[in-house]
Amino acid sequence: MSRKRILITGAAGFLGSHLCDRFIKEDYHVIGMDNLITGDLRNIEHLFKLENFEFYKHDVSTFVHVPGQLDYILHFASPASPIDYLKIPIQTLKVGSLGTHHLLGLARAKGARILVASTSEVYGDPTVSPQPEEYWGNVNPVGPRGVYDEAKRFQEAITMAYHTFHGLETRIVRIFNTYGPRMRLNDGRVLPAFIGQALRGEDLTVFGDGSQTRSFCYVDDQVEGIYRLLLSDYPYPVNIGNPDEITIKQFGEEIIKLTGTTQKLVYKELPVDDPKQRRPDISKAQELLGWEPKIGRAEGLRITYEYFRSLPDQEIKHKDF
Ligand code: NAD
Ligand code: UDP
Protein backbone atom coordinates (compact mmCIF):
# COMPACT_ATOMS: atom_id res chain seq x y z
CA MET A 1 0.00 0.00 0.00
CA SER A 2 1.32 3.46 -0.81
CA ARG A 3 2.12 5.82 2.02
CA LYS A 4 -0.26 8.60 3.13
CA ARG A 5 1.16 12.00 2.14
CA ILE A 6 1.20 14.88 4.61
CA LEU A 7 2.32 18.50 4.13
CA ILE A 8 3.70 20.15 7.28
CA THR A 9 4.23 23.93 7.18
CA GLY A 10 6.64 25.42 9.71
CA ALA A 11 8.55 22.13 9.43
CA ALA A 12 11.93 23.59 10.43
CA GLY A 13 10.51 25.13 13.60
CA PHE A 14 10.20 23.68 17.08
CA LEU A 15 6.79 21.98 16.87
CA GLY A 16 6.89 21.41 13.10
CA SER A 17 10.13 19.43 13.31
CA HIS A 18 8.79 17.18 16.08
CA LEU A 19 5.64 16.61 14.00
CA CYS A 20 7.80 15.66 10.99
CA ASP A 21 9.56 13.08 13.19
CA ARG A 22 6.26 11.68 14.43
CA PHE A 23 4.71 11.25 10.99
CA ILE A 24 7.92 9.72 9.60
CA LYS A 25 7.76 7.27 12.51
CA GLU A 26 4.15 6.44 11.51
CA ASP A 27 5.46 5.72 7.97
CA TYR A 28 3.87 8.70 6.20
CA HIS A 29 5.46 10.49 3.25
CA VAL A 30 6.25 13.88 4.83
CA ILE A 31 6.58 17.08 2.80
CA GLY A 32 8.08 19.84 4.95
CA MET A 33 7.71 23.50 4.01
CA ASP A 34 9.29 26.51 5.70
CA ASN A 35 10.74 29.91 4.78
CA LEU A 36 13.17 29.69 7.74
CA ILE A 37 12.16 33.10 9.13
CA THR A 38 12.29 31.77 12.71
CA GLY A 39 13.12 28.11 11.99
CA ASP A 40 16.40 26.26 11.58
CA LEU A 41 17.19 23.53 9.03
CA ARG A 42 19.29 21.76 11.66
CA ASN A 43 16.01 20.71 13.33
CA ILE A 44 15.22 18.47 10.35
CA GLU A 45 18.62 17.76 8.79
CA HIS A 46 18.47 14.16 10.09
CA LEU A 47 15.42 13.62 7.82
CA PHE A 48 17.01 14.73 4.54
CA LYS A 49 18.53 11.33 3.83
CA LEU A 50 15.11 9.60 4.00
CA GLU A 51 13.25 8.71 0.80
CA ASN A 52 9.89 9.52 2.45
CA PHE A 53 10.86 13.10 3.35
CA GLU A 54 11.08 16.14 1.10
CA PHE A 55 11.51 19.81 1.89
CA TYR A 56 10.49 23.02 0.15
CA LYS A 57 11.87 26.39 1.23
CA HIS A 58 8.84 28.55 0.60
CA ASP A 59 6.85 31.43 2.13
CA VAL A 60 3.27 30.14 2.52
CA SER A 61 1.92 33.70 2.61
CA THR A 62 2.47 33.60 -1.16
CA PHE A 63 0.67 31.03 -3.34
CA VAL A 64 1.36 27.42 -2.28
CA HIS A 65 1.77 24.64 -4.82
CA VAL A 66 2.66 21.03 -4.02
CA PRO A 67 2.83 18.42 -6.78
CA GLY A 68 0.98 15.11 -6.40
CA GLN A 69 -1.63 13.80 -4.04
CA LEU A 70 -2.03 15.08 -0.46
CA ASP A 71 -4.01 13.34 2.28
CA TYR A 72 -3.31 15.71 5.17
CA ILE A 73 -2.01 19.22 5.82
CA LEU A 74 -0.70 20.53 9.16
CA HIS A 75 -0.42 24.33 9.06
CA PHE A 76 2.15 25.25 11.72
CA ALA A 77 4.01 28.07 9.98
CA SER A 78 3.93 31.25 12.07
CA PRO A 79 6.23 33.17 14.36
CA ALA A 80 5.21 31.98 17.83
CA SER A 81 7.22 33.83 20.42
CA PRO A 82 6.23 37.35 21.53
CA ILE A 83 9.63 38.86 20.61
CA ASP A 84 9.46 37.23 17.16
CA TYR A 85 6.00 38.44 16.32
CA LEU A 86 6.70 41.91 17.67
CA LYS A 87 9.78 42.06 15.41
CA ILE A 88 7.91 40.80 12.31
CA PRO A 89 4.28 41.84 12.89
CA ILE A 90 3.18 42.07 9.24
CA GLN A 91 4.60 38.63 8.34
CA THR A 92 2.81 37.25 11.42
CA LEU A 93 -0.53 38.69 10.31
CA LYS A 94 0.05 37.47 6.75
CA VAL A 95 0.95 33.88 7.58
CA GLY A 96 -2.07 33.50 9.89
CA SER A 97 -4.46 35.03 7.33
CA LEU A 98 -3.15 34.78 3.75
CA GLY A 99 -1.07 31.69 4.55
CA THR A 100 -4.05 29.92 6.08
CA HIS A 101 -6.22 30.91 3.10
CA HIS A 102 -3.70 29.41 0.66
CA LEU A 103 -3.45 26.17 2.62
CA LEU A 104 -7.23 25.84 2.90
CA GLY A 105 -7.42 26.31 -0.88
CA LEU A 106 -4.73 23.68 -1.36
CA ALA A 107 -6.57 21.28 0.95
CA ARG A 108 -9.73 21.80 -1.05
CA ALA A 109 -7.98 21.26 -4.39
CA LYS A 110 -6.35 18.05 -3.15
CA GLY A 111 -9.30 16.74 -1.11
CA ALA A 112 -7.01 16.73 1.95
CA ARG A 113 -7.89 17.09 5.63
CA ILE A 114 -6.26 20.14 7.24
CA LEU A 115 -5.35 20.83 10.87
CA VAL A 116 -4.39 24.41 11.77
CA ALA A 117 -2.25 25.43 14.75
CA SER A 118 -4.19 27.91 16.83
CA THR A 119 -3.21 29.07 20.30
CA SER A 120 -4.28 29.83 23.85
CA GLU A 121 -3.64 33.46 22.82
CA VAL A 122 -7.10 33.48 21.20
CA TYR A 123 -8.30 33.79 24.83
CA GLY A 124 -6.10 36.91 25.24
CA ASP A 125 -5.86 37.99 28.90
CA PRO A 126 -8.58 35.59 30.08
CA THR A 127 -11.12 36.54 32.71
CA VAL A 128 -12.11 32.90 33.33
CA SER A 129 -9.85 30.12 34.48
CA PRO A 130 -9.22 27.43 33.44
CA GLN A 131 -10.11 28.35 29.84
CA PRO A 132 -12.65 26.06 28.13
CA GLU A 133 -13.06 26.11 24.34
CA GLU A 134 -16.43 27.88 24.76
CA TYR A 135 -14.74 30.99 26.21
CA TRP A 136 -14.61 33.76 23.58
CA GLY A 137 -11.58 35.50 24.98
CA ASN A 138 -10.41 38.97 25.97
CA VAL A 139 -8.10 40.24 23.22
CA ASN A 140 -6.87 43.78 22.54
CA PRO A 141 -6.88 43.87 18.72
CA VAL A 142 -4.65 46.96 18.47
CA GLY A 143 -2.17 46.12 21.24
CA PRO A 144 1.29 44.74 20.41
CA ARG A 145 0.15 41.09 20.73
CA GLY A 146 -2.91 41.76 18.54
CA VAL A 147 -0.93 40.90 15.38
CA TYR A 148 -0.62 37.31 16.56
CA ASP A 149 -3.88 36.90 18.47
CA GLU A 150 -6.08 38.36 15.75
CA ALA A 151 -4.27 36.48 12.97
CA LYS A 152 -4.99 33.25 14.85
CA ARG A 153 -8.61 34.24 15.50
CA PHE A 154 -9.03 34.97 11.79
CA GLN A 155 -7.35 31.64 11.07
CA GLU A 156 -9.97 29.85 13.16
CA ALA A 157 -12.82 31.81 11.52
CA ILE A 158 -11.74 31.09 7.93
CA THR A 159 -11.03 27.45 8.76
CA MET A 160 -14.55 27.03 10.15
CA ALA A 161 -15.96 28.82 7.09
CA TYR A 162 -14.20 26.36 4.75
CA HIS A 163 -15.64 23.54 6.83
CA THR A 164 -19.17 24.94 6.82
CA PHE A 165 -19.36 26.29 3.27
CA HIS A 166 -17.08 23.90 1.37
CA GLY A 167 -17.49 20.81 3.53
CA LEU A 168 -13.71 20.69 3.99
CA GLU A 169 -12.40 18.32 6.66
CA THR A 170 -10.82 20.68 9.18
CA ARG A 171 -9.30 20.44 12.67
CA ILE A 172 -8.28 23.29 15.00
CA VAL A 173 -5.85 22.77 17.87
CA ARG A 174 -5.50 25.49 20.52
CA ILE A 175 -1.96 24.96 21.75
CA PHE A 176 -1.00 26.08 25.26
CA ASN A 177 2.65 26.93 26.14
CA THR A 178 4.70 23.97 24.94
CA TYR A 179 8.42 23.41 25.53
CA GLY A 180 11.17 20.94 24.81
CA PRO A 181 14.34 20.34 22.79
CA ARG A 182 14.75 22.42 19.58
CA MET A 183 13.29 25.60 21.00
CA ARG A 184 15.58 28.46 20.02
CA LEU A 185 17.69 29.49 22.99
CA ASN A 186 17.24 33.14 22.02
CA ASP A 187 13.56 33.11 21.02
CA GLY A 188 12.62 35.13 24.12
CA ARG A 189 10.10 32.65 25.48
CA VAL A 190 10.40 32.25 29.20
CA LEU A 191 11.89 28.75 29.34
CA PRO A 192 14.77 29.25 26.87
CA ALA A 193 15.27 32.75 28.31
CA PHE A 194 15.70 31.44 31.89
CA ILE A 195 17.81 28.41 30.93
CA GLY A 196 19.99 30.54 28.62
CA GLN A 197 20.54 33.06 31.41
CA ALA A 198 21.42 30.30 33.87
CA LEU A 199 23.91 28.76 31.40
CA ARG A 200 25.57 32.15 30.79
CA GLY A 201 25.77 32.92 34.50
CA GLU A 202 23.32 35.82 34.27
CA ASP A 203 20.42 36.70 36.55
CA LEU A 204 17.00 35.38 35.47
CA THR A 205 14.70 38.16 34.25
CA VAL A 206 11.17 37.87 35.62
CA PHE A 207 8.78 40.28 33.91
CA GLY A 208 6.42 42.11 36.28
CA ASP A 209 6.19 40.72 39.82
CA GLY A 210 6.11 37.14 38.51
CA SER A 211 2.59 36.47 39.80
CA GLN A 212 1.27 35.82 36.26
CA THR A 213 0.71 32.13 35.55
CA ARG A 214 1.34 29.74 32.68
CA SER A 215 0.87 25.97 32.31
CA PHE A 216 3.71 24.23 30.49
CA CYS A 217 3.24 21.16 28.29
CA TYR A 218 6.10 18.89 27.21
CA VAL A 219 6.47 18.60 23.43
CA ASP A 220 5.90 14.81 23.19
CA ASP A 221 2.53 15.18 24.94
CA GLN A 222 1.59 18.04 22.61
CA VAL A 223 2.52 16.02 19.51
CA GLU A 224 0.46 13.05 20.73
CA GLY A 225 -2.58 15.32 21.25
CA ILE A 226 -2.21 16.85 17.77
CA TYR A 227 -1.81 13.40 16.21
CA ARG A 228 -4.99 12.13 17.86
CA LEU A 229 -6.94 15.27 16.95
CA LEU A 230 -5.93 15.02 13.28
CA LEU A 231 -7.20 11.44 13.12
CA SER A 232 -10.40 12.24 15.05
CA ASP A 233 -13.65 13.40 13.43
CA TYR A 234 -14.05 16.60 15.50
CA PRO A 235 -13.99 19.86 13.48
CA TYR A 236 -14.22 22.38 16.36
CA PRO A 237 -11.34 23.82 18.41
CA VAL A 238 -9.70 21.58 21.02
CA ASN A 239 -7.33 22.77 23.76
CA ILE A 240 -4.12 20.77 24.05
CA GLY A 241 -1.92 21.68 27.00
CA ASN A 242 -0.89 20.66 30.48
CA PRO A 243 -3.21 22.07 33.20
CA ASP A 244 -0.43 22.12 35.81
CA GLU A 245 -0.38 25.90 36.42
CA ILE A 246 2.56 27.76 37.97
CA THR A 247 3.51 31.40 38.54
CA ILE A 248 6.46 32.72 36.55
CA LYS A 249 8.28 33.49 39.82
CA GLN A 250 7.93 29.86 40.96
CA PHE A 251 8.98 28.74 37.51
CA GLY A 252 12.15 30.85 37.77
CA GLU A 253 12.88 29.30 41.15
CA GLU A 254 12.48 25.80 39.64
CA ILE A 255 14.97 26.68 36.88
CA ILE A 256 17.46 27.99 39.46
CA LYS A 257 17.20 24.67 41.31
CA LEU A 258 17.38 22.57 38.15
CA THR A 259 20.46 24.31 36.76
CA GLY A 260 22.21 24.84 40.08
CA THR A 261 23.01 28.44 39.10
CA THR A 262 24.13 30.82 41.82
CA GLN A 263 22.35 33.71 40.07
CA LYS A 264 19.07 35.17 41.30
CA LEU A 265 15.74 36.39 39.98
CA VAL A 266 15.65 40.06 38.89
CA TYR A 267 12.47 41.91 38.03
CA LYS A 268 11.84 43.82 34.76
CA GLU A 269 8.89 45.71 33.34
CA LEU A 270 5.88 43.58 32.41
CA PRO A 271 5.24 43.65 28.62
CA VAL A 272 1.99 45.36 27.50
CA ASP A 273 -1.08 43.05 27.53
CA ASP A 274 0.88 40.13 29.04
CA PRO A 275 -1.87 37.65 30.12
CA LYS A 276 -2.20 37.39 33.91
CA GLN A 277 -3.27 33.76 33.95
CA ARG A 278 -3.38 30.81 31.57
CA ARG A 279 -4.49 27.26 32.19
CA PRO A 280 -6.25 24.91 29.75
CA ASP A 281 -9.49 23.12 30.48
CA ILE A 282 -8.68 19.82 28.77
CA SER A 283 -11.96 17.96 29.35
CA LYS A 284 -12.71 17.95 25.60
CA ALA A 285 -9.35 16.40 24.71
CA GLN A 286 -9.84 13.83 27.48
CA GLU A 287 -13.36 12.89 26.32
CA LEU A 288 -12.93 13.09 22.56
CA LEU A 289 -9.34 11.94 22.13
CA GLY A 290 -8.68 9.95 25.31
CA TRP A 291 -5.69 12.28 25.68
CA GLU A 292 -4.02 13.81 28.69
CA PRO A 293 -0.42 14.84 29.34
CA LYS A 294 1.88 12.14 30.70
CA ILE A 295 5.16 13.99 31.25
CA GLY A 296 5.39 16.17 34.36
CA ARG A 297 7.39 19.37 34.54
CA ALA A 298 10.28 17.86 36.51
CA GLU A 299 10.95 15.24 33.84
CA GLY A 300 10.27 17.53 30.87
CA LEU A 301 12.52 20.28 32.22
CA ARG A 302 15.34 17.82 32.89
CA ILE A 303 15.28 16.57 29.27
CA THR A 304 15.06 20.12 27.91
CA TYR A 305 17.90 21.37 30.12
CA GLU A 306 20.13 18.50 28.91
CA TYR A 307 19.39 19.54 25.32
CA PHE A 308 20.30 23.20 25.88
CA ARG A 309 23.37 22.28 27.90
CA SER A 310 24.72 20.16 25.05
CA LEU A 311 24.60 23.05 22.53
CA PRO A 312 27.94 24.52 21.37
CA ASP A 313 29.28 27.23 23.64
CA GLN A 314 29.10 30.00 21.04
CA GLU A 315 25.39 29.30 20.57
CA ILE A 316 24.70 29.56 24.29
CA LYS A 317 26.64 32.84 24.45
CA HIS A 318 25.05 34.33 21.31
CA LYS A 319 22.16 36.68 22.03
CA ASP A 320 20.46 38.57 19.20
CA PHE A 321 17.58 40.21 21.01
P1 NAD B 1 8.73 28.23 15.61
O1 NAD B 1 9.04 29.67 15.42
O2 NAD B 1 9.80 27.35 16.17
O3 NAD B 1 8.25 27.57 14.25
C1 NAD B 1 7.50 28.24 13.30
C2 NAD B 1 8.06 27.89 11.92
O4 NAD B 1 7.25 28.52 10.91
C3 NAD B 1 9.49 28.39 11.71
O5 NAD B 1 10.30 27.35 11.23
C4 NAD B 1 9.33 29.51 10.69
O6 NAD B 1 10.48 29.68 9.88
C5 NAD B 1 8.11 29.05 9.91
N1 NAD B 1 7.39 30.12 9.22
C6 NAD B 1 6.96 31.30 9.76
N2 NAD B 1 6.35 32.04 8.79
C7 NAD B 1 6.37 31.30 7.65
C8 NAD B 1 5.91 31.51 6.32
N3 NAD B 1 5.27 32.64 5.97
N4 NAD B 1 6.10 30.53 5.40
C9 NAD B 1 6.74 29.39 5.73
N5 NAD B 1 7.22 29.14 6.97
C10 NAD B 1 7.05 30.08 7.91
O7 NAD B 1 7.42 28.17 16.53
P2 NAD B 1 6.69 26.90 17.19
O8 NAD B 1 6.70 27.07 18.65
O9 NAD B 1 7.18 25.65 16.59
O10 NAD B 1 5.18 27.17 16.71
C11 NAD B 1 4.62 26.46 15.62
C12 NAD B 1 3.14 26.76 15.50
O11 NAD B 1 2.48 26.41 16.72
C13 NAD B 1 2.84 28.23 15.25
O12 NAD B 1 1.75 28.32 14.34
C14 NAD B 1 2.41 28.75 16.61
O13 NAD B 1 1.53 29.83 16.50
C15 NAD B 1 1.76 27.51 17.21
N6 NAD B 1 1.80 27.55 18.69
C16 NAD B 1 2.92 27.21 19.37
C17 NAD B 1 2.92 27.27 20.76
C18 NAD B 1 4.11 26.85 21.58
O14 NAD B 1 4.04 26.89 22.81
N7 NAD B 1 5.21 26.42 21.01
C19 NAD B 1 1.78 27.72 21.44
C20 NAD B 1 0.66 28.10 20.71
C21 NAD B 1 0.67 27.99 19.33
N1 UDP C 1 8.70 36.14 30.88
C1 UDP C 1 9.57 36.50 31.89
N2 UDP C 1 10.90 36.61 31.61
C2 UDP C 1 11.41 36.37 30.37
C3 UDP C 1 10.53 35.98 29.33
C4 UDP C 1 9.16 35.88 29.62
O1 UDP C 1 9.15 36.71 33.04
O2 UDP C 1 12.64 36.50 30.18
C5 UDP C 1 7.26 36.01 31.21
C6 UDP C 1 6.33 36.72 30.23
O3 UDP C 1 6.15 38.07 30.61
C7 UDP C 1 5.06 35.90 30.40
C8 UDP C 1 5.57 34.49 30.69
O4 UDP C 1 6.92 34.64 31.11
O5 UDP C 1 4.31 36.34 31.50
C9 UDP C 1 5.54 33.57 29.47
O6 UDP C 1 6.14 34.24 28.41
P1 UDP C 1 6.44 33.59 27.00
O7 UDP C 1 7.06 34.63 26.15
O8 UDP C 1 7.19 32.32 27.20
O9 UDP C 1 5.03 33.16 26.41
P2 UDP C 1 3.55 33.75 26.45
O10 UDP C 1 2.81 32.75 27.24
O11 UDP C 1 3.51 35.10 27.11
O12 UDP C 1 3.16 33.81 25.03
- The CATH superfamily of the largest domain is identified as NAD(P)-binding Rossmann-like Domain
The CATH architecture of the largest domain can be given as: 3-Layer(aba) Sandwich
Note the total helix count: 10
CATH fold-level name of the largest domain:
Rossmann fold
Structural class: alpha/beta
Uncertain regions spanning at least 5 consecutive residues: none
* Number of β-strand runs: 13
Q: Mean of residue pLDDT?
A: 97
Order of helices and strands: EHEEEHHEHEEHEEEHEEHEHHH
Q: Ions, cofactors, ligands: which are bound? A: nicotinamide-adenine-dinucleotide, uridine-5'-diphosphate
Question: What's the helical proportion of residues?
Answer: 25-40%
Whole-angstrom Rg: 19 Å
Largest sheet: 7 strands, parallel
Strand content: 15-25%
The geometry reads as globular
Task: Determine and state the CATH class of the largest domain.
Answer: Alpha Beta
The CA-CA distance between the termini, in Å, is 49 Å
Q: Number of folding domains?
A: 2
The main sheet orders its strands as 3-2-1-4-5-6-11
Overall description:
There is one protein chain. By secondary structure, this protein is an alpha/beta fold. The protein folds into two domains: 5-178 and 218-240, Rossmann fold, CATH 3.40.50.720; 180-214 and 244-277 and 295-317, UDP-galactose 4-epimerase, domain 1 (Alpha-Beta Complex). It contains ten helices and 13 strands. It has helices at residues 14-25, 82-87, 89-110, 146-166, 190-200, 219-231, 248-259, 283-289, 297-309, 313-317; strands spanning 5-9, 29-34, 53-57, 72-75, 113-119, 170-175, 178-179, 204-207, 213-215, 217-218, 237-240, 245-247, 265-268. The strands form four sheets. It has a seven-stranded parallel β-sheet with strand order 3-2-1-4-5-6-11, with helices on both faces. A two-stranded parallel ribbon has the order 7-10. A two-stranded parallel ribbon has the order 8-13. Helix 4 (146-166) links the parallel strand 5 (113-119) and strand 6. Helix 1 (14-25) packs across helix 6, helix 3 packs parallel to helix 4 and helix 5 (190-200) runs parallel beside helix 7. It is globular and about 55 Å long. Uridine-5'-diphosphate binds next to helix 5 and strand 8.
